[in-house]
Amino acid sequence: MLTVMKFGGTSVGSVEALERVANIVVGTEGNKVVVTSAMSGITNFLVACCEDLENQREETIEVFEKKHVCVAKAMLDEKQFAEFMEEFTPRMEAFKALLYDEKAAKSPYYQDNVTSQGERFSSLLLCHKIRSLGYKSVALTSEDCGIIAEGKPLNGNANLRMTETQMGINLMPYINRGYIPVITGFYGVTKDDWIPLTFGRGGSDYAAAVVANALNADMLEIWTDVDGFMSADPRVVPNAVKIDEMSYAEAAELAYFGAKVLHPRTIEPVRKKHIPLKVRNSFKPKEEGTLISRFREYRNELLRSVATKTDLSIISISSPEIAYRPDIVSKILNKISENDDAIYSISTSLSTVAFLIHNNDVKNTLIKLNELDNDDVEKIDVTSDVALICCVGDELMSETGACGDIFGAVKAAGANINMISEGASNVAINFVVSNGDALSVIKILHSKFVEGDS
Question: Residues 143-146: contacts with CB within 8 Å, 24+ apart?
């Protein structure tokens, strides 16, 4: 049994948290590989440093070093602390050199390198805590393991095939000798120059899934500070309940469209190899959490969960030629993709195509769209401050009257639907309402279809 265990920033954010996590790790049966995020707050701290490097450099070094050394002193005895410092010092010196390296600062991947430093030190802390409990452990970076990434700065993707090859060479020997490897999350390295490339904010979940895929693990566990996937955000719906089992498709829909339990890209690497995934709470280790797998018990429920993503905008592009010239849609998509902006939904009609993007991306998106030929585009309209509602349930597209029931509840909430996306997934129906109506819609959908109130 090989389990890959990922721990988030709050799970490794203090002496008490690290001690709790170390005990969870050693108490898990079979072989284990651990993937860690940076300590809570560290990545934001490093991002701020990059934005004002000249003025923040010295303070960053001082605060960063002090935080990690203080935690190590508090949880390790004198001998163990000395061993920790033997590994800590060269890593810290390399970090200092990076912050003063003017040539490196010109690289497009410089921010990837700086902002991924936190994981190199949280993994070291956890490794030495595990050793202090009498177990063999080794702290390894993505460079050491060979997590191969490709793509643009701050938004990389893992090359799963190459990573599997590298990990078979670099990581498996430690596992076979009984070590518990503790690996940096959040980033990989480019295949040619071995330069750090991050997977985007929250990318440690994804990194752990990549590791599980590469090792053909029996289980991936994502340990965080929540009990698992919920039927709704409990801050909005107090009666929300934990979902015990989900399919890959259900979890992917909720993660992408609003549920902040899991990074949206986490599902695909484990789905490819049918590796089950559990979301668990490191502060409540006896709780089973949510199991995500290929199969789950069918439940005759219209909805299992509802989620929302707010602060979005609809960009509607009109052209009388869209239905007869597919190349126009292609041009529009290419322009939007130049900014790497996420598109949350697309809807088309005879003469209009509408895209749903974040409010913050509207300005740059319009700049790109205005570069299109006037003969191709008649007008562009923007509807701002809308929210996407994601409804997940059992085979919604096969359930006669499902949409009617759901939209009837939306009407009862007094909300108007601005945009609909259905049919792309058999387990989800997504639609757009105004930001101001989102909470009331979520509450009535949960009450009517999850809680079962008439």
Answer: 143/189, 143/194, 143/196, 144/170, 145/170, 145/171, 145/181, 145/183, 145/211, 146/170, 146/171, 146/189
